[in-house]
């Protein structure tokens, strides 16, 4: 066992002591300094040695256990978990050389996925920030400089994702864009080369986000599905030419909701580094976690700069703001900003400046805390209601986070497209999960929970059950 006395002193001026303990241990484990099976110091011993509260160490250990770095059993010592892959190492990959299928579905009904509840939007605080910035923009801000984004907003975003998601980068690596789709399109335009043999291959989670599939197809991508299971994408099951880009949603897989295991994360990063691929990490709604704290981003453990991290304010604040961001490997910054200038994929300066103030004042985090409580209640009510009324037809997901819930037909021959259309004709807007597959599909329904008030969930689920009972679900 490593003595707690050998750990370096914490930086008390920067705060987040729990995060510092977590990162110290995580980094030593990832780089082989704490081998599998090694006992870790007890929480009491570590707390005394570092001069922090025991609860600080307990919380750090719990994060490490939740993310798969540590393992423990009742009555046994806590030890470093075993990984079948080698610790992360190596240099950054070399720089890359310099009509979509879309299925339309009803919108605006009950259980529509991907749509946040904007009724609780903090209008007053946002109006004050927006008005103040509209009146006081500097001459410098009104020119053509800062194509990648206002420096204040880049810093505010980086401060937020570093603290909440474990992202490690510099402000100049943050690029502000109008949407997640714009970010995907920019990265694809830089990384894909359809005229070169193998230059347009993209490995995609299966099932996966339909909009990402469509955007990548528009960029000329040859999409190769890679299966996901209870541990996330299984990169070992990818086939064909090595990809230029790998699209994943590791913290909250779309649409299944699973979290990629640490073993799979390490395997994915090593594969990308060895093959010169970029991993596009779409962190679309992982700010909302109900059973535990958010899992750290894949980007934070990327020692080879192979991950481009994408986040959005569409789910956390409102889609109408049209603000998202990408944190890109440093070697791609120049190319991404050049592509951004050509495409005009920019966000108005006064919106960027106001959002920077909104975040700096702590209003964004306060809004997240408020909405996380609301969404947690709605998710729990939806899961309970669907289990109670629709359990004979559907296997309902756990609902541990996010704004949508996957439910799978027990009858693997169910025609979920026809069922979804029947249900949606009665005031709903559910989505068939089979539409999210590139290859053979598993039938299911994807339901949004953000606007489903807890007290209304039971009646909505009962209505769906009556519709399922009245119509055959087999294809």
Automatic annotation (TrEMBL):
Tree of life domain: Bacteria
Record keywords: Aminotransferase, DNA-binding, Pyridoxal phosphate, Transcription, Transcription regulation, Transferase
Pfam hit, one: GntR
Xref: InterPro entries: Aminotransferase_I/II_large (IPR004839), HTH_trans_reg/aminotransferase (IPR051446), PyrdxlP-dep_Trfase (IPR015424), PyrdxlP-dep_Trfase_major (IPR015421), Tscrpt_reg_HTH_GntR (IPR000524), WH-like_DNA-bd_sf (IPR036388), WH_DNA-bd_sf (IPR036390)
Residue ranges of every copy of the HTH gntR-type domain listed in the record: 15-83
GO MF annotations, alphabetized: DNA binding; DNA-binding transcription factor activity; pyridoxal phosphate binding; transaminase activity
Keyword DNA damage: no
Family assignment from sequence similarity: In the C-terminal section; belongs to the class-I pyridoxal-phosphate-dependent aminotransferase family.
Protein name: Aminotransferase class I/II-fold pyridoxal phosphate-dependent enzyme
């Amino acid at each position: 066992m490593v003595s707690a006395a050998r750990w370096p002193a914490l930086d008390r001026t920067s705060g987040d002591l729990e995060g510092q303990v977590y990162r110290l241990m995580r980094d030593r484990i990832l780089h082989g300094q704490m081998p599998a099976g090694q006992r870790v110091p007890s929480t009491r011993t570590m707390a005394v040695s570092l001069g922090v509260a025991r609860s600080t160490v307990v919380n750090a250990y719990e994060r490490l256990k939740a993310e798969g770095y540590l393992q423990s059993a009742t009555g046994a010592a806590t030890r470093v978990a075993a990984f079948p892959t080698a610790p992360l190492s190596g240099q950054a990959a070399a720089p890359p050389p310099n009509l979509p299928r879309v299925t339309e579905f009803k919108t605006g009904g009950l259980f529509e996925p991907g749509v946040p509840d904007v009724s609780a939007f903090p209008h007053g605080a946002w109006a004050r920030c927006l008005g103040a910035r509209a009146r006081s923009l500097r001459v410098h801000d009104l020119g053509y400089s800062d194509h990648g984004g206002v420096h204040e907003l880049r810093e505010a975003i980086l401060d937020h994702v570093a603290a909440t998601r474990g992202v490690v980068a510099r402000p100049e690596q943050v690029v502000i864009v109008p949407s997640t789709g714009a970010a995907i399109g920019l990265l694809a335009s830089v990384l894909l080369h359809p005229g070169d043999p193998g230059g347009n291959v993209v490995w995609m989670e299966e099932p996966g986000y339909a909009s990402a599939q469509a955007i990548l197809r528009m960029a000329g991508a040859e999409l190769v599905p890679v299966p996901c299971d209870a541990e996330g994408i299984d990169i070992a099951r990818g086939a064909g030419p090595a990809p230029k880009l790998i699209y994943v949603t590791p913290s909250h897989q779309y649409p299944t909701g699973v979290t990629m295991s640490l073993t799979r994360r390490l395997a994915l990063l090593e594969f990308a580094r060895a093959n010169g691929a970029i991993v596009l990490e779409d962190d679309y709604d992982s700010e909302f976690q109900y059973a535990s704290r958010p899992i750290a981003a894949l980007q934070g453990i990327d020692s080879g700069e192979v991950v481009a991290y994408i986040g959005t304010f569409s789910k956390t604040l409102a889609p109408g703001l049209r603000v998202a961001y990408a944190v890109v490997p440093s070697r791609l910054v120049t190319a991404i900003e050049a592509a951004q200038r050509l495409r005009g994929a920019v966000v108005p300066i006064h919106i960027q400046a106001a959002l920077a103030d909104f975040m700096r004042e702590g209003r964004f985090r306060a809004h997240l805390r408020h909405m996380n409580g609301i969404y947690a209640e709605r998710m729990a009510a939806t899961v309970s209601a669907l289990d109670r009324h629709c359990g004979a037809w559907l296997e309902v997901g756990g609902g541990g986070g996010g704004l949508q819930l996957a439910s799978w037909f027990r009858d693997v021959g169910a025609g979920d497209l026809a069922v979804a259309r029947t249900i949606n004709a009665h005031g709903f807007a559910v989505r068939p999960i089979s539409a999210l597959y590139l290859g053979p599909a598993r039938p299911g329904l994807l339901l949004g929970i953000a606007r489903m008030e807890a007290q209304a969930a039971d009646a909505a689920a009962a209505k769906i059950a009556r519709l399922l009972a009245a119509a055959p679900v087999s294809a």
